[in-house]
Amino acid sequence: MATTSRRLTARTRRLDPADPRHDRPLLDLLPGGESVSWVREGEGLVGWGCAARLDTSGSDRFTDADAWWRRLCGHIDVEDSVGLPGCGPVAFASLAFADQPGDSVLVLPEVVVGQRDGVRWITTIGDARDPEPQPVRQPGTVSYSDGRLSSTGYRQAVAEAVRLMRTSGGELRKIVLAHDLVASTSEPLDERFLLHNLTARYGNCWTFAVDGMVGATPELLLERRGYEVRSRVLAGTAWPHPGRTDDEIAAELLDSAKNRSEHAYAAESLAERLRPFCSELSVPSAPSVLRLRNVLHLATDVEGKLADSPDGSGLLHMVEAVHPTAAVGGTPTADAVPLISELEGMDRGRYAGPVGWIDGAGNGELGIALRCGQIEQQSTAGAGSGGARGGRVRLFAGGGIVPGSDPDLEVAEVEAKLLPVREALEGVR
């Protein structure tokens, strides 16, 4: 756990149209090295450098993060001539999925460039200067090996989860399981290479990077703008098949009792936990279909207006209340989540945990860390690397398991969900 007692100054100003950074894509501004990202359809935030950082773990991670951020903001003088969400001091967060010991992190970058509603701005902490930009590096040859839970192990875990649910007398209705895959690269892994390729193919997802956790998530856990709050719940998945059009697959997905039931669990879970914070909450009666390049999801956009409560409905406090939803935990969540680590036999780390940003005014966006990988550098030289270390990244994907799940189909679904990061590593755009 780390903070700073010295006073800092955060200065936010609009970028002048003559500034060369004004019109370049946000991801193109990342200089390399330690960087952060939250970008969707050309808007969002990118940053670099580290003015302050918190490392925490365990069941108190949300409380620790909220207290640290409030305390740190009390030591920051703010000069903000823009006044949009994401201006002033901004912390990027990536929190562990489970309460068991696991790394969670908040980072206050030295420089953040943001864009919202066509307005481009820059925030600097103290006397931060832009580092010399480095060219984006290619990862070289990519090879794959089993992670801590192989595809075969995942199939067995799914089969056991189905057995447990079928013998629970209907009390256990959904368990969300995942498995991992290790990718090794012959050259050092530059996360900007992943970010560029992910956003080129999945521009309608939130492309994120925080402390080596890199991905493109389609699922928004919570967004807060003043008194407005919203969430995008995803559960229920189909994927392209030869000879079937997207329209046909979407219609089948909407007509699937298994997928509609799974989705209802997730939407109801989110609404039930968010409702105490709201004076108004709107939950559509039926889901829509979100179409991505590799899969189709049932989606529900939940919107609400926060009540004027004494605690100010802090975003991290609300995130703690709603995480994990049934979309990434199960139903009933309290019964399903403990079974996840038992069935998977691995530590998920920050996979499926909250990831995104919060600002000093309480605004922010936190998604669920899906379609992602945790970068881990190797300690051995890669072939053709001139003695430099190659890269290593642990990829994750999962799905919701219900009593009617077919283990073979669930394995196929997870392989489809691994494609975004695999293709990004291999340079596919």
TrEMBL record:
GO terms for molecular function: isochorismate synthase activity. InterPro entries: ADC_synthase, Chorismate_C, IsoChor_synthase. It is an enzyme of class 5 (isomerase). Pfam families: Chorismate_bind. Residues 152-417 form the Chorismate-utilising enzyme C-terminal domain. Residues 1-20, 127-148 are annotated as: Disordered. It catalyses: chorismate = isochorismate. The keyword Isomerase applies. Coiled coil: none annotated. Its EC number is 5.4.4.2. Keywords: Isomerase. PANTHER family: ISOCHORISMATE SYNTHASE ENTC. Belongs to the isochorismate synthase family. This is isochorismate synthase.
